[in-house]
């Protein structure tokens, strides 16, 4: 590798890194604005047009703030933990493609790389909680570890099903660019809606968003693992949360929404990143929308949901896809036959799960309605 | 059309008066009316027995301790128990006194759990010891506070420096 | 336990079972303790083994202060007890003095008091609705609750000139007559409240997660509730139909038609529902009272200097949080009370907190505390 290559990579990394950070500030602003609109408020409105500079001002404030370290912490780990949380999220962006050629490193096993790196940030959370020598932080990090480990499974199973499916249409089924190519004009959202829902639930839990924001739970453990952090160290945690959200939205776009493909995306390559960002924004907005009205689950309910519903459902999803793909291999079906079969089975499964949940909900609600209908 | 609380509204013959007299028996120092409420005075030694009897009697069933107040009468401290029944429309006031230089009254926490914090507050502010109470640690005041701010003899200082400052 | 500050990192390990317990301090600065309440929780994992509540951080000595104030001045102290239900507090106090002095209250004043107090009950329950949403982690309810509460506060501001500390009720009546256009304004407000109420119901009442979080949480047997002296929506949620407006009627409540909603299990969901239904009932009470609002003076015949005769009275009323009692001892001939004891409903309700929380999850602890809807101004006095 020549020096020029190194410099090029360094420049790209620099641009990417700062681009992500700026985008994250935008995401935070968008959340505050969207939440405000959902709650009959105005939201940030003073700093810059529509208050768009508010988050930048907040970030600058955080950087200038005094960095307070309590006397009783384990100094080395306390300072190391934010980095350990921060780094994995940005490592993910090395393999995330903005277009067929717009990618830093198109790994052949990109899917496995992502799954592996995603699990790393839990180490940082646990270390932060432990090093803070604070009971709220300890509880928060313990909850975080339990939650991340539990929801890693449905997430990973959903991602693996995508890889299996992509294998039918491309010879690079575990590269993210390969997956987008494999989807062609029919995104996997249509073929595998159950997988998409499971991925979204898993992503919500991984990024600790409401209704799964138990590791932070401001009303119970006052912010969880980050209680003792202040200034830009706390800011790093905060930015990482939203970077994680953006990453998850990006992944969902790549894996289920057809990535950069859209009308005329092949003819006009400059449209490709644009389509990608639009789809990503849509997913992020859905996440904000979920946040506004929903209360938070309790830790045991969260675990019950993971192990009783999400993990079995994701296993079934994987099994169905695997079986159908295997049958196709045996019988040499056309590609569209496979897609339609999987699509039908997946939609039936998703609808059945939905009806099952809705039934239970109605049953339970009927009790309450009867009790209070006086 | 008024609030209905005027003294002349109250019928001075309450249906529970006889029953209260029976239950209090020899312990009763006096049974009289104050506005519309029947008022029973007993000695401090018999307060727990009387209260327990008032609560367990099915005709009276004073299962709800509305309020427990301590009043400083300079030479004596008075504990006032406002009782009510939820099954009958009855109300009763029970009063008992303790001399200020020997301020103790047996606890009624065994009769109503709700006496707990009222008694702790009385102990805090008036120095009235509710004997037998499991935990008379300061409730309202901070630990190490000197004096009994509820008593008439307590002089409110001009400026209070916070303890431990 | 008395000396346990809960601040040191004391993890107690049982030598036999190897089980460790974590003592965690919640409050007085904690987002979910609704003021300056503090409790020390002993945890076994996520389970709460024991709770020890600490109060007194907001103690201002209201009772002792009252001994140095004129009877007329004490209303201001009552405004500051339960600072989200000011009118209800003032009302109980002025009724106590009126009872001691035998003062007649003009009918119009009585209706004005009732209307304002019931509106204040709605405002208080709306505040509960909002903060309870926050306690369970939802953000929307607080916005809906505060929006409608703000509308009520505006009416109050029009009547009394203040949003919270009104000092509007006088012994023998109210300070001055209602402003012009009060009745149509309140009628319009009631229509808005009904819309807002439906919106509020839709957000939490049938939310799956909210039900999961609150149903079956924090229930203790009704006998225990009574034994602890728990009153108000908490007691009624437990199925005991005890509302002072019905059980020991005061003012003109006997003439009005309303219902006392009760729950069955006494869990947090029932407490929430009882309060929500009380909003509905209060809206109907205010509407009825507006229809009947008579003309006439708003101040009765009261001596210029108030000197109640010797004796003691105990007056109570149904506050949004329960049974507020005032024990007033007058030594006769003085312009100041000899002793004034305030029985705050939150104070008595809090006594049952350890029994409710023990054995539940840490996350439930804040939900249970939130369902009690305490106001520390009244607990610490």
Helix-strand layout with pairing:
The complex is a heterotrimer of chains A (374), B (165) and C (381).
Chain A: H1 3-38, H2 54-64, H3 75-92, H4 110-118, H5 121-131, H6 135-166, H7 176-183, H8 188-191, H9 193-206, H10 218-221, H11 231-256, H12 271-291, H13 299-331, H14 335-372
Helix pairs in contact in A: 1-2, 1-11, 1-12, 2-11, 3-4, 3-5, 3-11, 5-6, 6-9, 6-13, 9-11, 9-13, 11-12, 13-14
Chain B: H1 17-24, E1 28-34, E2 37-42, H2 47-56, E3 64-72, E4 76-84, E5 91-99, E6 104-106, H3 115-126, E7 129-131
Parallel strand pairs in B: 2-5, 6-7
Antiparallel strand pairs in B: 1-2, 3-4, 4-5
Chain C: E1 11-13, E2 20-26, E3 38-44, E4 47-54, H1 62-66, H2 75-79, H3 86-101, H4 107-136, H5 140-160, E5 169-170, E6 173-174, H6 182-205, H7 208-214, H8 222-227, H9 233-237, H10 244-247, H11 268-292, E7 311-319, E8 322-330, E9 339-343, H12 345-350, H13 353-357, H14 362-372, H15 376-380
Antiparallel strand pairs in C: 1-2, 2-3, 3-4, 5-6, 7-8, 8-9
Helix pairs in contact in C: 3-4, 4-5, 4-11, 4-14, 5-6, 6-11, 11-14
The total beta strand count of chain C reads: 9
Largest sheet, strands/sense/barrel of chain C:
4 strands, antiparallel
How much β-strand is present in the residues of chain C?
5-15%
Q: Mean pLDDT across all residues of chain C, rounded?
A: 85
**Broad shape of chain B:** elongated
For this entry, what is the oligomeric state of its chains? heterotrimer
Find the structural class of chain C using helix and strand composition.
alpha+beta
Give the % helix of chain C: 40-55%
Distance between the termini of chain C: 24 Å
What's the shape of chain C?
A: globular
Uncertain regions spanning at least 5 consecutive residues of chain C: 1-10
Number of helices of chain B: 3
Largest interface: B-C, 42 and 51 residues
Strands side by side in the biggest sheet of chain C: 1-2-3-4
């Amino acid at each position: 590798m020549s020096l020029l290559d190194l410099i090029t990579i360094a420049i790209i990394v620099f641009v990417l890194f700062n681009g992500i950070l700026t985008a994250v500030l935008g995401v935070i602003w968008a959340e505050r604005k969207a939440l405000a609109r959902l709650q009959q408020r105005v939201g940030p409105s003073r700093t810059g047009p529509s208050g768009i500079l508010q988050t930048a001002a907040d970030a600058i404030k955080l950087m200038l703030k005094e960095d307070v370290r309590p006397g009783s912490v384990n100094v080395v780990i306390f300072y190391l933990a934010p980095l350990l949380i921060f780094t994995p999220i940005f490592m993910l962006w090395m393999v995330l493609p903005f277009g067929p050629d717009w990618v830093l490193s198109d790994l052949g096993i990109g899917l496995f790389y992502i799954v592996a790196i995603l699990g790393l940030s839990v180490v940082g959370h646990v270390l932060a909680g432990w090093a803070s020598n604070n009971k709220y932080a300890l509880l928060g990090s313990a909850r975080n570890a339990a939650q991340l480990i539990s929801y890693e499974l449905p997430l990973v199973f959903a991602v693996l099903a995508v890889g299996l499916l992509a294998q039918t249409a491309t010879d690079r089924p575990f590269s993210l660019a390969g997956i987008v190519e494999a989807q062609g004009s029919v995104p996997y959202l249509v073929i595998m809606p159950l997988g998409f829902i499971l991925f979204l639930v898993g992503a919500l839990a991984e990024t600790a968003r409401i209704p799964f924001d138990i590791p932070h739970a401001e009303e119970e453990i006052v912010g969880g693992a980050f209680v003792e952090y202040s200034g830009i160290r706390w800011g790093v945690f905060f930015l990482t949360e939203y970077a994680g959200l953006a990453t998850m939205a990006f992944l969902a776009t790549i894996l289920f929404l057809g990535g950069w493909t859209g009308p005329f995306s092949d003819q006009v390559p400059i449209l490709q990143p644009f389509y990608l960002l639009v789809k990503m924004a849509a997913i992020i907005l859905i996440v904000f929308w979920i946040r506004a009205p929903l209360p938070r689950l309790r830790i045991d309910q969260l675990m019950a949901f993971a192990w009783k519903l999400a993990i079995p459902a994701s296993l079934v999803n994987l099994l169905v896809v695997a079986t159908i793909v295997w049958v196709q291999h045996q019988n040499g079906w056309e590609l569209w036959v496979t897609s339609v079969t999987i699509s039908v089975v997946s939609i039936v499964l998703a609808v059945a799960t939905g009806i099952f949940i809705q039934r239970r909900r109605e049953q339970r609600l009927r009790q309450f309605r009867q009790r209070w209908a006086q | 059309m008024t609030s209905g609380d005027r003294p002349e509204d109250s019928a001075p013959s309450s249906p529970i008066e006889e029953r209260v007299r029976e239950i209090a028996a020899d312990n009763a120092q006096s049974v009289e009316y104050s506005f519309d409420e029947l008022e029973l005075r007993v000695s401090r030694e018999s307060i727990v027995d009387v209260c327990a009897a008032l609560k367990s009697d099915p005709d009276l069933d004073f299962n709800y301790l509305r309020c427990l107040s301590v009043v400083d009468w300079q030479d004596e401290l008075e504990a006032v128990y406002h009782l009510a029944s939820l099954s009958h429309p009855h109300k009763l006031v029970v009063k008992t006194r303790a001399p200020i230089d020997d301020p103790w009254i047996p606890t009624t926490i065994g009769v109503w759990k709700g006496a707990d914090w009222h008694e702790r507050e009385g102990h805090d502010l008036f120095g009235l010891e509710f004997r037998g109470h499991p935990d008379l640690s300061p409730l309202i005041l901070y630990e190490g506070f000197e004096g009994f701010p509820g008593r008439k003899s307590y002089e409110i200082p001009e400026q209070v420096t916070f303890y431990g400052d | 336990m008395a000396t346990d500050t809960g601040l040191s990192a004391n993890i107690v390990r049982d030598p036999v079972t190897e089980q460790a317990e974590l003592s965690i301090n919640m409050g007085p600065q904690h987002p979910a303790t609704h003021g300056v309440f503090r409790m020390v929780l002993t945890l076994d994992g996520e389970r709460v083994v024991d709770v020890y509540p600490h109060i007194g951080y907001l103690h201002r000595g209201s009772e002792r202060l009252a001994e140095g104030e004129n009877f007329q001045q004490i209303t201001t102290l009552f405004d500051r007890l339960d600072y989200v239900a000011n009118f209800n507090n003032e009302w109980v106090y002025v009724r106590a003095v009126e009872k001691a002095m035998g003062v007649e209250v003009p009918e119009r004043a009585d209706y004005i008091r009732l209307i304002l107090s019931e509106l204040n009950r709605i405002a208080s329950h709306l505040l509960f609705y909002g903060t309870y949403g926050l306690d369970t982690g939802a953000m929307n309810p607080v916005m809906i609750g505060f929006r409608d509460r703000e509308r009520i506060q505006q009416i109050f501001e029009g009547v009394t000139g203040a949003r919270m500390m009104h000092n509007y009720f006088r012994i023998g009546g109210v300070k001055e007559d209602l402003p012009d256009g009060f009745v149509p304004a309140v009628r319009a407000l009631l229509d808005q409240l009904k819309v807002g109420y439906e919106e509020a119901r839709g957000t939490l009442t049938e939310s799956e997660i909210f039900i999961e979080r609150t149903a079956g949480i924090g229930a203790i047997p009704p006998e225990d509730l009574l034994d602890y002296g728990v009153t108000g929506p908490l007691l009624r949620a437990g199925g005991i139909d005890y509302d002072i407006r019905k059980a020991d009627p005061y003012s003109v409540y006997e003439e009005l038609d309303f219902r006392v909603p009760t729950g069955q299990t006494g869990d947090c969901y029932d407490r929430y529902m009882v309060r929500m239904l009380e909003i509905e009932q209060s809206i109907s009470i205010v509407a009825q009272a507006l229809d009947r609002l008579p003309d006439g003076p708003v101040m009765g015949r009261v001596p210029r200097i108030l000197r109640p005769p010797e004796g003691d009275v105990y007056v109570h009323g149904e506050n949004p949080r329960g049974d507020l009692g005032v024990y007033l001892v007058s030594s006769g001939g003085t312009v100041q009370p000899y002793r004034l004891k305030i029985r705050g409903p939150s104070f008595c309700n809090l006594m049952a907190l350890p029994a409710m929380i023990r054995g539940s999850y840490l996350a439930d602890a804040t939900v249970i505390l939130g369902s009690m809807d305490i106001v520390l101004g009244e607990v610490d006095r």
